Amino acid sequence: MQSFWILTFVAAFVFAEPCFAQKLVDPNLVAPEFRAAAEKRRAEQMKILDCHHKADAAKVLPRDRAEHINHCLENDPRK
Q: Could you state, in order of their start, the residue ranges of all structural domains in the chain?
């Protein structure tokens, strides 16, 4: 019986994992007084996503990934 509960917990965690991901902000769905902040956050999220794609393309190891992404964000020409 205990193994059933463990298996249920693991299955629930595996299927719920994608919902823990941070969503891209949509400035059109935000109240007008917060739209400027939402647009700024969206631009930041897009830069981070672009750096993640560059790290994937460069096949960076997981242990070096954070350093690679930070370096990419520091040297971003879109600042």
A: 22-79
Helix (H), strand (E), coil (C) string for 4-20? HHHHHHHHHHHHHHHHH
The pLDDT tens digits of the residues spanning 9-61 come to 777 766 665 566 677 788 888 899 999 999 999 999 999 999 999 999 999 99
Sequence-distant (≥ 6) Cβ neighbours of residue 45 within 8 angstroms: 22, 24, 25
Distance between first and last Cα of the chain: 56
Check: CB of residue 25 under 8 Å from CB of residue 41: yes
pTM: 0.66
